[in-house]
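Input.
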Amino acid sequence: MTDNGGHHGHLPRTDGLTDVASLRVGHATLTGNGRLTGTTVVLAPEGGMVAAVDVRGGGPGTKETDALDPRNVVQRIDAVVLTGGSAYGLDAASGVMAWLEEQGRGVRVGPERGHVVPVVPAACVFDLGRGGDFRARPTAATGRGAVEAAAAAAPGARVPVGSVGAGTGAVAGLLKGGVGTASILLPSGITVAALVVVNASGSALDPLTGALYGEFYSGRVMYPDHVIHQNALRRMAEASAELERPALNTTLAVVATDADLTRAQAQKLAGTAHDGIARAIHPVHLLGDGDTVFALATGERPPGDDPLAPNDILAAGAEQVTRAIVHALRAAESAETPRGTIFSYSELYGTE
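Output.
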């Protein structure tokens, strides 16, 4: 595999989901007045994209995921919604559907341009009450704001990461979670990328060293000073006692490629990408988690005639999910809440 430099066409690479050139990402972030939540939308190019999903967590909150089953009729979709607000936040998908309907995008069910039903798969993370107000959660208006931001983004625009969108109120064990993204250009010329909302009940932090689990798979582990690590453990323990967070969490991921995958191949990509979560968070896929991975394929590049040709894409998908989790944790910012501080990795351990 190559590194993440170089160019895809004429666009500079950003080590993010939008390196799959026709995808766009938008966030709507809700903070202040008891709010600490938001919504993130991945918008397909005109004509839609092949999509699949794999749910491994025991407590998922999803919408329209059955439509992605390769046995069912919907062939392509126009957007994926990742949102805070637990099951309440799935209302954000309605705002995205309304915007797509106005564009005439969706499954055509009649002769006129507006006779469409947009299929908008969505998944949520649990962040209720993190900002202080249990009733502060994303709505249809939040979803519209996120999809409008995606549509307004320039092709190949760098994806904002950290405490934004669906990652605004996210936590990862005792750390502040958030949104992260990563990508790679394979020797075949195919791009594989991931975007992750890290909101895990498991830990992303090695308790012995203070290093992030995901970095053990990157070949570039940053080991904090022992004194700094011990001080960080103390501060996290004190903060956790004040916050009294329930063990209800979810890590959401979108893994995407510009390869021309079948729906069944995309389904396999969604499943193997869960390995990327397991490398970076321990434990995962518990009953209080809703861990869900969407796989997207824009179909711009053939993967090859060999039936095993997609193997490189499958392996890269898991790797980019792991890298995206690390990027999310390093980009997250500490959050002040009425019950106390949710510390970020960078505040506790410093930046690279």
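Confidence is low (pLDDT under 50) at residues 1-9.
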